[in-house]
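Changelog note: in this version the structure field was regenerated for every chain. One regenerated record is shown below for reference.
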Amino acid sequence: MWESVFISTLAGLATGVGAILVVLFGRPSRRLLSVMLGIAGGLMLAISVFELLPEATELGNHTTTVVGFIFGAGLMALLDMVLPHLHKNLRTPEVGAIGNLEGALHTASCQERDRCCGQRQPAFDIGQMANMYYCGLFLAIGIGLHNLPEGLAVGAGYSNSAALGATIALSLALHNIPEGMVTAAPLRVAGVNKWLVIAIATAAGLVTPIGTFIGALLTSISPGFIGISMAFAAGAMIYIVSDELIPQSHEYHCHAANFGLVAGFILGYML
């Protein structure tokens, strides 16, 4: 159990890595983001199709597999309705007044540089700063709640084999880095201290090992729960791929996204 929690913790910490990248360098290139999200999506698809669903059927039956799959996808859909994943697009309603986050980050960095040089730049007004601040906090809460079932997927994978659990954790880590970046961006624009920004993004990611612990505990209590848990993990992961990874990766760079998706799928098949 503790090995799965540890590897899930590493995957969760990738959210903090994304925040660190924003603090240090701003947002990376669109092509790189597309490839990362595409690889994560391809890995999740391959794991679900070649590992989770066949194992779920073998450990249970077709009925339990379908029920678990629907429950996993349904939970992610419910979370999206209650707390929508605003990071699907960097152009969120909360930042409409000042353009997209990329431009806002550039403006904020220019203001910080000019302050150091003794120059004055027009600052964001209080309302805009407040919108950015609450946007960042809302994103962190939403990402944290979405990470709970993702952690369950790691626990379900580890209940079958350590290699499968580690592969799921790897795909989630690739997914979590951009999530950390989009959480950090509005907070930095709002003037939040860089260390607090990193801490908030990291805390959102560390919900993942909590989900893994719950999943590992449930499967250890009832071995019959393993099959339906793996189907649940497949449903949650395929929903994430369809709802988040593929649309967002194509938003940045469609050809790089396709390359990443194919590469990730082949990698998942080989693993």
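Spot check on this record: Residues 126-160 form the longest helix (35 residues). The chain has a mean pLDDT of 76.
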